[in-house]
Amino acid sequence: MKKKILIAVSSLLSFVLFALIIYLFVILIGNYAIDNEKLVMKATTSLTDQNGEVLTHLFIENREPVSIQEIPKHVQDAFVVIEDVRFREHQGVDFRAIGRALYRDILAGAKVEGGSTITQQLAKNVFLTNEKTWLRKTKEVLIAMNLERRYSKDQLLEKYLNSIYFGHGAYGIQAASTLYFNKDVADLSIEEGALLAGLPKAPNSYSPINNPDRSKERRDLVLTVMQRHEVLEAEEAKRLKGKTVATNVNRFEEKEAFLTYIDMVMDEAESRYHLTQEELLTGGYRIVTPIDLRMQEVTYKKLKENRYFPTENEDAEAAVVLIDAHTGGVIAVQGGRDYVRRGLNRVNVKRQPGSAFKPLAVYAPAIENGRHPYTMLVDELLDYNGYTPRNYSHQYTGYMTMYDALTISANAPAVWLLNDIGIERSLEVLNRFNITIEDRGLAIALGGLTEGITPLQLASSYHVFANEGVRVEPYFIKEIYDRNGKRLDGEPLVEEEVIEPQTAWYMTRMLESVIQNGTGRHGDVQAMVAGKTGTTSFPGVEGAIMDAWFVGYSPDVVGTVWMGYDQTTNERYLHGGSAYPTVLFKDIINELPASLRQTTFQKPTAVTELESPIELPVVTDLKATFSIGGRGISSIHLDWTGPEEERVYYQIYEVNTDGRNHVATVVGDTQYYIGSLNPFTSKRYEIVPYDEITKQPGLPSNIAEVKFKFGLH
C-alpha cells in the first residue's frame, strides 16, 4: 500500500512538475516573442493649418488610435459576438471554440471555421507573419496567453480594434469610421458598428464601397448574432436589418496643390525636430503649419495658366513662394508647375537673380554705410579692369540718384556704387542676410553669381525690408504635438536684426517707386507693393532670356516668382522677361483676402520718412555789392536766385588766388550780409548749393566781384 501511495504521489509530483515546466515554457517563450514596441500602433500624422483644418495625412498605415472609452459599447459588442463571443471568459485560447471548429471542419471535409480568439488575432496581427505553419500557430497561442497575463480585457480589445484592417487603406476602427461614414467612432450607430464588425474577415469582399449587397448581408449576419447572444432585442434587430447600407465615404485623396508644401514640412521636421520620414509616417503627430490653404490652391492654379508665360513658352517652369510679412511663416509654396512628391523642388534650386540682387548686394549695403537714397551716382560707361557694365537702354546721363537708378534698374550706377563702397562691405551685409557667395567681382552688383540664389532665399531676404530690418528664418512648421498631445521642442528659429530699421524703410520707399514708375509697373494690383524685377540673358542666343524674376512684398505678404527652364538651351529659352512674373505676382496678391491687401505701408515710429527729392539749383546770378547800412555801418550784400528750402544749404566761399575760404552757410534764404568797412574791396565770392540730406554739393555759382552801390541799402 505504501508503495502504491508513493508511486501515486510521485506520479502526481511528476505531473505537477511537468505542468509547471510547460507553464514556465509558455511564459518564457511568450515573453520572448512579445516586443512591447510593436504594440505601439503605427499612427497617421496629420498636417493642419492654424485653424485646425486638415491639409493632409502622412502614413504608412492610415490609423488614428482611439481609447476603448471612445468606442461605444454596442460597437464593442458587435465585434465580440462575431469574432470571439467568449472573449471575456477565456485566458487567450478558447479550447471549446477550437473543438467546435475542428468538428465542423471534419464534417465539411475542409477548413470552414476558425477558432482564433480576439487575443490570438491581436498576437498574429502585431507579432507574427501570415505563414500557415504549426510553429507559427504555437507561437500565436503562447503570445496570446502572455498578453492575457499582462493586459486587461478592455486593453486587449482596444489594441485589437486599433490594429485590424478594414479595407481601402484604413487601419483601426477610427480610420474605418472616418472612411465609410465620415464620422468619429464615438458617433457610430448600431447598424454602422455591425457593418464595420463584419469587415475584418474579408475587407474587400464585404466592402460597402465595392460590394454594397454583400456588405449588407454580412452586416445583417452580425445583427442576427447580436440578437442570438441577447445583445439586441429581436424587434430592434429586425428593424435595423431593414435599413439599407448608407455610407458617407470620405476617401482621403492627396491634393496636388499641396505636394510641395508637404515635402517642405517633412524636410523641416527632419532638420529642426530630428524626426525621420518613418517616424513622421508612423508616429501619429499633429503638425500645425502657417499655410493659407486658399492661397496654396490659388498659386497652384495660376501656375497652370499659360497666359502668365511668354508666347512659345507654355512648357516653361516656375516657382512661387509667399511668406507672412509679420511672422516669417510660409503661407504658400509651389516647386513647379507639375510638381511631384519628392521631385525637383525649384524653390530650392539656385538660379541667377539678375537685377533682383541689386537691393541686397548694393543699395542696402550702401545705405548701411552712410549713403542716402538721393545720393548722386555716376552713370557713365566705365571700364573696371576689363569689366564694362552697360545699361539695358545703352543711354547714360552722367549722374543720377540712387533712388532713380534702382527705379529704372540702371546697371552702370549700381556697379559704380558697389565699387565705391567696396565689395567687402557688400559681402558683409549679404552674410547678415544669410547669403554666402564665393564671388568677389563687381558683377555681383548685377546678380552675376557663380552659383546663384534660390527663390526661397530671395523671399527670405526681402522679408527683412518688410520686417523693419529683422531677419526671421522662414518656417513651414509652427508647432508639432505627439500622439499624447505633448508639444515637441525643435531647433529655435533664427531672428536677428540684419539692417537698421531706417535702411529697411528707405528700401521700401525706393522699391515702391520700382512698382509705380519703374520696371515693376506691369500689371494691376489692389494693394500697395514694393519690389524688384530681375532678368538674366542667355548668352547662346541674342535676346534670349534664361531667368525672369519678381520679388517683392505688400504690407502683409512677401513673395518671389521665378520663371525659366531647368536647362536653358539654344532651342529652349524664355521669349520674354520680368514683366511676366511681375503680372503673376500682382494677380496672386489680388487674390488675398481684403484684410491682407493694405493700400499703404505703415512707417515705423522710430524712422525718418523719405521726403521728396531735392533738385539743387544752379545759381548763375550771384551778385555782391558794397553798401552803407545793411546789417552794420557798411556791408557786402550777397544775393542770388534759388529755392528758399530748408533742406538746401547755400555754402558761401570767398575766392582768392590761393583757392577759396568758407565764409558762411545760409539756410532758408537767398541773401547774406558780410560786414566790411572798405568800400574799395576787390574780394570775390562764390556760392555752392548743398543737399543736407544726401550730404552732396551741387554745381558752383558764378563768381561775383564786389561792386560799390551808392546810397543806403
UniProtKB/TrEMBL annotation:
Span of domain Penicillin-binding protein transpeptidase: 319-589
Keywords linked to the UniProt accession: Carboxypeptidase, Cell membrane, Cell shape, Cell wall biogenesis/degradation, Glycosyltransferase, Hydrolase, Membrane, Multifunctional enzyme, Peptidoglycan synthesis, Protease, Transferase, Transmembrane, Transmembrane helix
SUPFAM superfamilies, per the entry: beta-lactamase/transpeptidase-like (SSF56601), Lysozyme-like (SSF53955)
Domain Glycosyl transferase family as annotated: residue spans: 53-227
Gene Ontology biological process: cell wall organization; peptidoglycan biosynthetic process; proteolysis; regulation of cell shape
This protein's record includes keyword rRNA-binding: no
Sections of the chain in a coiled coil: none
GO cellular component, one term: outer membrane-bounded periplasmic space
Catalysed reactions, semicolon-separated: Preferential cleavage: (Ac)2-L-Lys-D-Ala-|-D-Ala. Also transpeptidation of peptidyl-alanyl moieties that are N-acyl substituents of D-alanine; [GlcNAc-(1->4)-Mur2Ac(oyl-L-Ala-gamma-D-Glu-L-Lys-D-Ala-D-Ala)](n)-di-trans,octa-cis-undecaprenyl diphosphate + beta-D-GlcNAc-(1->4)-Mur2Ac(oyl-L-Ala-gamma-D-Glu-L-Lys-D-Ala-D-Ala)-di-trans,octa-cis-undecaprenyl diphosphate = [GlcNAc-(1->4)-Mur2Ac(oyl-L-Ala-gamma-D-Glu-L-Lys-D-Ala-D-Ala)](n+1)-di-trans,octa-cis-undecaprenyl diphosphate + di-trans,octa-cis-undecaprenyl diphosphate + H(+)
Classification via InterPro entries: Beta-lactam/transpept-like, Glyco_trans_51, Glycosyltr_51/Transpeptidase, Lysozyme-like_dom_sf, PBP_transglycosylase, PCN-bd_Tpept
TM region positions: 12-34
Family to which the UniProt record says this protein belongs: In the C-terminal section; belongs to the transpeptidase family.
Protein name: Penicillin-binding protein 1F
